[in-house]
Amino acid sequence: MPLLIVRYLLLYMEPVMLEIGDALVSLDVIEKEFICNLEACLGACCIEGDAGAPLEEEERQKLKDILPVIWDDLLPAAQSVIREQGVAYIDQEGDVVTSIVNGKDCVFTCYGANGMCYCAIEKAYKEGRIDFYKPISCHLYPIRTKKYSGFTAVNYNRWKICKAAEVLGRKEGVKVYQFLKEPLIRKFGEVWYNELCEVAIEYERQKAQDD
């Protein structure tokens, strides 16, 4: 068990974050329930918002490398944007993010016959045409990570378009960190994820005792 399981506010004795390796994890990650419900939201997270998906620097180069393979899958408007500014840009917060169409749609968003959004990158990966699944920020959503000096913040980003996912998660009893096992391991490693699970179980045990 990690030396530091939960940081406490001494005045109120309320847990505020979990320290796992060099990451500080919001309690929402282990307390809230979540299962993506694409039939309800139709992939709205790919087309809502005012900026593209955050990218790590190596991911920007990877998107450039795979662009010829997925080019014909992209919408004409997305192709036009990419020709003008490339696969990514710097947003107002200074972060590298995927380029967007009409001020909101990710350029890698495509649509199925039923109006459901899908990721052209993920589609090509599943078809065996490329070896890159999709940006880790997309894979991790609704978790958002932010790198600071000495640690990485790991937070659950609640958004009204994901309300159906919260309802489904509560129905099935699946926590955010459980639903996002694969991308969390991809980001932080299996040892880190197993430690998170141990801490989550211990936290719930202590919480039950206090109740």
From TrEMBL:
<comment type="similarity">
    <text>Belongs to the Rv0495c family.</text>
</comment>
<protein>
    <recommendedName>
        <fullName>DUF3109 family protein</fullName>
    </recommendedName>
</protein>
<dbReference type="Pfam" id="PF11307">
    <property type="entry name" value="DUF3109"/>
</dbReference>
<dbReference type="InterPro" id="IPR021458">
    <property type="entry name" value="Rv0495c"/>
</dbReference>
